[in-house]
Amino acid sequence: MRNLKEDHKGFSTILALALIPLSGFATDIYLPSLPAMAKDLNVSASAIQLTLVFFMFSLGISQIFIGSILDSFGRFKISIASLAVFSAASFVIALVPDIYVIYAMRIIQGIAIAFIVIAKRAYFVDLFKGDKLKSYISLFSIIWASAPIMAPFLGGYLEHSFGWKSNFYFLGGLSLLMLLLELRHSGETIKELHPFKFKAITNTYSNMLKSVDFTLGFVILGITFAIVIMFNLTSPFIIERIFGYSAITTGYSALLSGLSVMIGGITAKSMIKKPLAKKVGTAITIQLILALLMIFTSSLESNIYTLVIFTMGLNICGGFIYNIVLGYCLSRFSKNAGVASGLTGGGAYMVSALFSYSFVNIYAVKSQFLLGLANISLLAIVGIVFIIFNKYRLKN
């Protein structure tokens, strides 16, 4: 086991921070290319949307169990192997344009990304303590949120200039470069490997899932994020096929969508001392009003501006809710923070994947009106779940 050298610690830390948004790049960079992929592969919109759903679901379910594996077998070798697998899978997608091969590779990418990102989060816990650790942790959400802003913007230009395959060549090349830099500058950071005790780990997960407020918390996170994903899944087809704009415009729209989520999260941080129920309840109410306006105004005026403006409002509120409920879930089990983090993130990703894809296809979303209907249906569910969540939260 090659331990991290002290003189490599600075650059290794930069590499670790750079790898945290890789999951966002893998999710969002090819969103402007969805219509072109569907046309080139001769498949339906729903078939190509499944590539994102499979990635998110595998990323989500993997996160639940990975923390224990990394604690037992180390971070460095596993993250190196995962980078190699992710890079190879990216090149395979570009070189073998078959929808079923792409499905398989996206599942593999999701698992690999889960190992990489969680290993890099653990890196900071291994090496830093106190205020220094808190400072780095506060950077995580900002750095992670940068990917949904930058990735589709870059992906739109890549699609316009070189075609959809260039997105996956980019992902493959970027991860290969990071792999080489990791081999040169990084090393193992865990001081002591922990024995892998399946029964104890299972009991911890079981106790958490039996806590209704915690479980409903990540369900709220998942459905809230599903509203963001629904826009990501459908907007390329609406903007490019219905409104007649290019993939570059789709990239700009996704950039504004991602920026809105970040604004919501920053706003929530500034209101941290306000009562949770009042904050979240108000945000859900505003979302319901915006979704209704999205539906009713579509008969009067439906264009890229109304689509994006209403979506930005929904996403600001969504980012606000996500930040608040995530903080609650992560602090709910302070003695098992790593497991709680994996279960919260993994559970939320799986819920997002299932709800976003299901409602996109239930409503066959191809317009602002249908997207508004899908949004208001999900918000009604969030509202009901939040009422039950708050009831159990107050008990605890």
UniProtKB/TrEMBL annotation:
Pfam families from the UniProt entry: MFS_1
Subcellular location field: Membrane
GO molecular function terms attached to this record: sodium:proton antiporter activity
GO BP: xenobiotic detoxification by transmembrane export across the plasma membrane
TM regions (residue ranges): 12-31, 43-66, 78-96, 102-124, 136-154, 166-183, 214-239, 245-268, 280-298, 304-325, 337-357, 369-389
InterPro entries (UniProt xref): MFS, MFS_dom, MFS_trans_sf
PROSITE patterns listed in its UniProt record: MFS (PS50850)
Topology class, membrane: Multi-pass membrane protein
Record-annotated Major facilitator superfamily (MFS) profile domain positions: 12-395
Record's keyword terms, sorted: Membrane, Transmembrane, Transmembrane helix, Transport
Lineage top rank: taxon: Bacteria
A GO CC term attached to the entry: plasma membrane
Name of the protein: Multidrug effflux MFS transporter
